[in-house]
Every structure is written in structure tokens, then in C-alpha cells.
Amino acid sequence: MTKAAFFRNNRQPQQQPAAATSPSTSDHGLASRLNNAVRFGGAHSSDEDEPSHAASSSAQRYGNGSRSNRFPDTSEDEMSPGNGDHGYAQLGDDDDDGADRDDQLGAPEPDPRALRRSDTYTRLPERKRTLRQRTAELDDHGPSAIHAPSPPPFSRALDSTDTSFTSPLSPSFSAERLPHVGGSGSGGGGGGALSSSTSTAATALTNISAATELTSPTYGSDEMLMALLASQATVDCESMSIGAWEEVEGWKKELSLLATRLDALQTRHQREVKILTAARTLQKLNQTNKRISRQTMESLEQSEKRVEAAEKEVLVLRDREAALRRRLNEHWAGVMAWEVRRLERAAAESSSRQQALVQAAESAHEREMGYAKRVTALETDRDAHDDHVSELKAQRDQHFARVRDLESGRSRELETSRSRQQETDTQVEALEQERDRAIGRVRDLETEGARQNGRIAELEEMIVEFGRRERALEEESKAHQDELAKVQSDRQSWQRERAAFVSAKEQWAVERSGIGHAQDSITSERSAWVKERTQLTEQHRALEGQFGALQTVHDELAAQHEQLSGQHGQLRTAHDALQVDLADIRAAHDDTRTRHCELEETHQGLNDKYVLITSQSSQAQLDLGDLQAQHRQLQAEHQELVDRHEAVESQTGLLQAQLGEAETQHRATQDELATLRAQQDQLHKHEGNMQSERTRLLEAAGLAKTASRQAAERLAAIGTAIGALLGRDTVPDKELDDAIADVGTLVQSRETELQSLKEEMLEVSQGLEDEMRRLRADRDGWKTKASEAQAMADEEHARAEAAQAAADEHAESARSVTQSQRGVQGEMMELMRKIRGQNEQIEHLNKQNDGLAADLETAHREITGRKKAGDADPVATNAKIAELETKLSAINSQLSSVWTILPSSESREQAGFSSPSVVSPNATVNFAALQRAYAEPATREEFPGVNALADRVRTLIADGRLMIERMTRMEVDKERHKANAAKAAQLVQDSSRSMETYQRQVMELEERLNKKTRLSSRLSKASTTAGDRASTSKQDELDELRATAEISTAAKQRLETELANANATISRLNDINSNLSARTLTLSDEAETERRTLQTQLQNQIDDLSRKLRTTTEDADHERARGQEQQMQMLDELNSLQAEVGQLRQKLRAKGG
């Protein structure tokens, strides 16, 4: 598309074109072409004469020069002045006639003699003078000379409205204001920038074109200025990088997302600024109150931190947005610069082609002038023949007079004169016939000249059309080469990504194995710690029993102490009574000695009782010391148990931390696996894109073949027309030597033209052969890829068959693939049912365990409350303990039953995936061994404990995960096989279309060969008169066509063989795809359902385990607090006992003293 056509296609609807003059009909088409070519030649000659006029050269390049490639293939409507081309006709005062002549390019070809009446050569000096004057005026006055009497409508529109051009792809991008051309706004100078997108640039250029077309006769200068600015911008933008289509689309999407995020962040920043302002106001108001001021200061600091964080995020997003806009602007500028350069090259090529056409027209004009000269010479010869005939008639009359005079007596001479007269009449008749023949030849030559002129015009148009098609083929070939290079680069990048993916996968497998070993070691250590914790728990329970026994002894001692206290009170009462009696006795001592002896005996009994009480008190003191020693020992043992319990708790915390780290690493590994799978999906998508690219290349190859066929048809038409032109020459050599010489010259010129056309046809054929060779290489490459994909599919199929054979090792060998897959599916479903039943039993046990834990917690709270209240009931406690033991035994029996249901590690190792780190769905699994492992065992194993049960539950979860992974992989394989089937069907359709196209080409070649055969037979008949040179050239051309037909036949056979192979491959792929689809369709839905069920169960188990861990931690803390409270109570009781014993001793000493 030329620059003028580009302006016309992008013209805005509201711009009205300037009024144009009506086309002139006085000049003829070929004359107007010659005038246009001479005008272009004059423009170029002025550039050569004055090379310093850069503005004039730029104007000729962007103005008149771009007009030169429009008239060969532009319709009459596009050439009319109303379509935006009237601006090119305003270079001088006399350009209106030139524009009128340019509008007549579509007129029919006139007679060649009309060229003598044209004023082409008279207008050339005037046009040169006008162009030199305008160029000199531009050089003398500079940019200030480029102005208009009033601002153009486009400038006024820029003065009154906003002049920012916003790209639809970048909302906030706006170009700089365009300069006002010659108006009062910004002067006559100024520069502009290319817009940010192709559509915006087209709109801007359309506006500029409309503005310059609506101005006064200084439009040419304005356009030269814009051309200079465009050239400068093109040079400045050549070094800017151009991104790929996908990359630019990614930038646009990212820019739109960044704009949305930036708006949200700006709103958040404004909100945070408002909050900060409010916080500062509150801080100023609350400075007098220290407590509120401190809180306000903290809120102010937090608000400042949030504002700073929001500002940082906004700045980061703005930097990213600016970088993306800069990249997009550079991309758009580089693309526009490339487009301008392409238009320049197209204009130059069109100018060169126009010059060649002008030269061809001049040569045709010279040949027509030679034909006219020869016709004039023939007319002169005809006049000479007429004079000679008149002379002969006069001589005949004279001779008749002499004969009449000599008639008498000269009979012999009369006979002689009669014979002479007959000869003379014969000569006259022969001369008249020759004159008539010469007149006919002259008329034939005139008709032939007119036909040759028409044929010359048709050949010129055909040559132009052929050149255009050749350029289109070259552009398509370049595009195909670029696309092939892009595909090769994508393939190399894909191979690099695949190698990186394989290395990452291997590294991940190594890390996964290390993680598995670490998990095994952690599991073993944890089991050892759990066993140690169980032993410590049992020891703690035994110590608690001993403590209960000691508590009972303590209670008994307390009862004895109360009894002793009662006896002490009785003794004290008796001592008081004795004191009263002793006073009475002392008062009556003198009266009665007998009573005194009795009193002495009573006193001795009392002393014996006192000694007995003292011994009992000392024994009680010794027993109290023993109790204190035992209490200290129990306290030491209890402290030791507490320390060991704390150590176990710390180890448990470390284990939990390590388990959390292992789980974190496992999640990270799972995330990496998901990332790798996503990359694999992307690679599959990339392969699909490559397949679609291949399909598009095949379609482009078909179009190229069609275009080559059309070009070959045009070449055949040209050869047929030239052969017909040579075959119509029927003038004998002996009758007219001059005509033979002229025809020989014409034949020689036509042979020269035919030879040049043959060379061009050979070049095109070589280009087409190169293109076909490249397409064949591409096809072979795609076939290699298809074979590789087939090999991969066969390998996957072999793996699937091996898995089926391993699963059905006891089945019959003649069972079909579908039945074996159903058997494997049934086994897997049975395993899933068993696993589901075991999970339900585990959940039931977990619920019972939770209920037991709740009962234990309730009993513990009741016992603690009773101890604190001081009304402990041993009978109720023992009953509660017995009930709890009964529940524990029931739970233990249920756990034993679950233990017998779960498979052992040895039986699972036989299935092929005993390690939990092996999760590859491609691993071979012995489903029969797996089914036996989950079947009911023949022997009952002893329940080792909760740790072993937990290990088997973990293995059960690992088996479920493996099944989920295998189901997921089968779903992915099913989708891949579906995609392969669709691609194979598309390949069959493409191959069928290519075969049909090639068959049509072969038929056309056969038709052409038949035509050439008939033409060669006709030429062989005419070769006796046309000469050996034409026959030799036609024979060579016939041989070439026959060789081409043979090559085409061989290529047809080769393509048929390749199509048969492709059909066989596609049928094989369809069979494989149908088998795999039948195998995987049934499993996909069930696998998805089982995956969701297992995922839900695993999540529930994880939640239960987390809840149990929290409950255990809370129980340990509560037990520790309860032990401390019991120790404090025992210490308080011991202190109270010691105080009471001390008081008792003091009283006994006082009584004894």
C-alpha cells in the first residue's frame, strides 16, 4: 500500500476533501503515462542538478514519488481527485492539467500516432523551472517561507481543543502537541513525534494530510516540512527495539493490571494520609493527657508507617508502569520507523519500475515511428508504381498509334506487336495486382501495428502484474522464513526449558529421597520418644499410686494425732483435778497420813501414766520424722518425674518443630511439583501451538502453490500470445523482401523479449523449487516430530500394557485391553473401599478416644475439686478408675482389631511402592500384591502399640495419595491423547487438501503440455517460413515444459506415497487414541470422585490430629499445675503438723516440769 492509499484508508469521516477539477478527456492514456513519467523524471533530475535541496528531495520522495507505484494496479475511483490525491497535483501553476492527465490512467489505449499530438516534451522544461524556483525559494527563506495566509482547519482545531492523541492500548499515554503549520499559534517551525500506536499514528497522519490538503497553494511546502520531520523521526527511532507480538500483548495486559492496582493503591494511600492527618490532630489535642497522648502517639506512628509503606508500593508500581510505557513507546516508534522505511523502499521500487515502463513505452514509440516511416516509404513506392503504370499506358497508346500506321503490310510485325501488347497487358495486370497487394500489405501492417500496440500495452500490464505477484511471493517467502526461524528458536528454547525441567526434576527427586530418609529417621526417633514417654507415663502412674498410698498413711497418722490430742485434753483435765486434790491434800496433810500415802500411791500411778504418755509421744515424734523423710523422698521423686516430664515435653516440642519443618518442606516440594506440572502443561500447550503453526505453514504453502500456479498460467498466456503473434505472419519471402526484413526484425525483437521472459520464468521456477524444497524439509521435520510423538505414545502404551500385565499376572493372556483395565479398576475400587472402611473405623476410634479423653478430664476435675474441698471419697475414685480402665481396655481391643486390618510393611513392599517418597505415577505397581496386602490376614498379630498403628495409618495415607496421583496422571494422558487425535485428524485434512491441490496442478500442467504440444505442431508447420531460430527456441521451450511435466509427475507420485504413509500413521494414531480413550474415560470420573473423597478424609484426619495434639498439650500443662498444687498442699499440711507437734511437746514439758 502506498502512502497516498494509506492516507485515504485512514481518513476521518468529518474531514471533507478539497474541490477537484474535472478530469480532462483531451489527452490519451499512454500520453498521460509518458507525461507523468517525464514529470517524475524531471523531479529526479532536479534532485541530481541541485543535491543540496534536501527539502525538495524529501518532498519528491514523499509527495510525487509515492504516486509512481499507484497507476499500474489502482482503480479509476482511487485515481479520482475526490479520494485525497488532489494534493499531489499542486506543485506548480500548471499542475491541474497534469492531475487531469493522471486521472485518465484507466482510459483505453489510443492509436500510437496520437503521441505526435501530445505536448509531453514541451511541458518538461516548464516543470523543471517551476520546481527549481520552489526549491530556491525554500532555500532562500527557510522554514519561515512555509506558511499559509490563514491557519488551516486542522491548526484551528488544535488551537480550540485538546491536541493529545491517546492510544487505545495505553489509556494515560498522550503524544506531544502537533505543530501549527503556518498559523499564529506556534509559528512556522516545530517538530512532532510519532504516536504511540499504529492506529493513533494513522489518525495523526490522516489529520495532517487533511490539514495540508485544505490549505492554500503552499501545501507542497507544508508536506515537505512534514516529510523532513518524519525522516528525522525515522532516523531517531531506527535504533529502538521492537518486541514480539506475544511480548507486546503481555506488556499491554500487565500495564492494564498495573493501572488497576495503581488506582487502588492511590486510593489506599489517600485514605492512609487522611487517617494520618486525623491522628496528628488527635495527638495535638491530647498532648496534655499523658496516657491518652501515649496511645495517640502509638497510633500516629503506626499511621506514618502505613503511609510510608503505601508510598513505597505506589512508587514501585509507578516505576514499573513507566518502564512498561517506555517499552511500548519504543516498540511503537520502532514499528512506525520500519513502516516509513518500507514505504520509502516501495516508492523507490515503484519509481524504478515506472522508469522501466517509460523506457519500454519510448522504445515502442520509436518502433511505431519506424513502422510509420516504412508505411510512408510504401506509399511512395505505390505512387512510383502508379507513375510507372501511367507511363506504360502512354507508351502503349503510342505503340498502338505506330501499329495503326504500320498495320498495312506489316502483318508479321503486327503479330509481334500483338504479342508484345499481350505481354505489356500482362505486365500491367501484374503491376496492378502487385500494387493491390502492396496496398493490402500496408493495411495489414497498419492493422498489425495497432494490434502490436494493444499487445504491447497488455504485455506491459501483464509484466507489471507479474512483478507485483513476484514481490508478493518474495514477501510471503520472507514471512515464511521468518516464521520458520521463529519456530526453530521456539523449538530450541523449548528444548532448553525441557533440559532445565529434567535437571530440576532429577534434583527434586534427589531432594525428595533425602527428605524421605529424614522423615524415616524422624519417624524412628519419634517412635522411640513415644515409647519412652509411655514408660515415663507408666512410672508416673505408679508413683501416683504410691503417693495415694502415702496419702492414706498420712490420713491414718492424722487420725492417730487427733486421738492423741483428745487423750492430751483428758490428761490436762485430770492434771487440773490433781492439782486441786493436791491442794486439798496439802491442806489436810497434817490431818491424815493415811490419805497422804494413798495420795502418794495415786501420784506414783500418775507418774507411770506420764512415763507411758511420754514414751508414746517420743514414738509419735519418731514416726513423724519417718513420715517427713518419706515425704522428702517422695518430693524428690516427684521433682525428678517433673524434670523428666519437662524434658520429654521439650523433646516433644522439638519433634513437633522438626515435624512442622518437614511438613513445610513437604508442602514446598508439593508446590514445586505443582509448578513443574504447570510448566509441563505449558510445554504441552506450546507443542499444540507448534502444531497449529505447522498447519498455518501448510496453508501458506498451499496459497504459495496457488499463487505460483497463477503466475505460471500468466506466463503461459504470455508465451501463447507471443507464439500466436509469430504464427500469423503469412507473407512469402520471394514476393516482398522488405517485408521479410521487417518481419525478421520484429521476430528477432520478439525472440529477445521471449528469451528475457524465459529467464524470468526460470528464476521464478527456481524460486518456487527452492520454496517447495524448503516446505518439503519443513514437512520432513514435522514428520520427524510426529514420529517422535508416535514413539512417545508407543512408549506410554507399552508402559500401560506392562502395568496391565503386572496387574493381571494370574489372568489369561488372551484377555483384551479393556477387560484388563476394568479388572485393574475393580481392584483399585476394592482397595479404595477397604481403605475407606479402615478410615471410618479409625474415625470411630478417634471419636471414642475423644470421648474417653473428655471422661478423663471430667474425672480429673472432680478429683481435683474434691481434694481442694477436702472431702475425698476413695470408693468413688476407685470406681471411676475402674470405669476408665474398662474403657481403656475396650479402646485397646478396638485398636488391636484395627491393627489386624491394616496391611503390614512386608506385604506393601511386595506391591512395589513401599517408600512414601515414591509418588511417580509411572512406577510399576503390583496390584495383586497390593490387594493381598489389604485382604484379611490369616494370622492374628499382637497389637504392639499406638506408634506402630500410627505408622500403618501413615502408610495407608501414602497409598491413598499414590492412587490420587495415578488417577490425575491418567486424566492428563487422556487429554493429551484427545489432543493428538485432533491433531492427527487435522493432519489428514491438510494432507487431503494438499493432495487435491497437487492433483489440480498436475491436471493443469497436463493441459498446458497438451496446449504446448498443439502449439509446437502448429509452429513446426510455420517454421519453414519463420526460420530455424524460432523453431529452435520453441523446441527448447517444449523440452523444458516436458521436463517440468516429468518432474511434476514424479513429485505427484512421491506426494501420493507420502500421503499414503501419512494416512497409515494417522489411522494407527486413531486406533491408539480410541483404545486409550476407552481405557481412560471410565476412570477419569471415578478418579476425580475418589480424589475428592480422599482429600476430604485426609483433611479431616489432619484436623483431628491437630486437635488431639492441642488436647494432649493442654492435659500436660494441667497435670503439671495439679502436681504443683498437690505439692504445695502437702507442704502446708506438713508445716501445720510440725507446728502442732511442737506445741504438744511444749505442753508435755510444761506438764512434766
Q: Can you describe this structure?
A:
With 1153 residues, the protein is mainly alpha-helical. Among the domains are: 22-145, no CATH class; 148-237, no CATH class; 245-368; 821-1123, no CATH class. The protein has helices spanning 3-9, 29-49, 54-64, 95-102, 120-141, 153-160, 198-213, 219-237, 245-285, 290-405, 411-587, 593-727, 737-807, 817-869, 874-901, 905-911, 927-934, 946-1026, 1028-1152. The protein is elongated. 18% of the residues are buried. Mean pLDDT is 65; it is low at 1-121, 141-220, 721-726 and 913-923.
Cα distance, first to last residue?
138 Å
Strand segment count: 0
Helix content: over 70%
Mean of residue pLDDT?
65
Enumerate how many helices there are, as a single number.
19
Helix/strand order: HHHHHHHHHHHHHHHHHHH
Overall form:
elongated
Low-confidence stretches: 1-121, 141-220, 721-726, 913-923
What fraction of the residues are assigned to beta strands by DSSP? under 5%
| Global Rg | 58 Å
User: What summary fits the major beta sheet?
Assistant: none
Structural class: mainly alpha
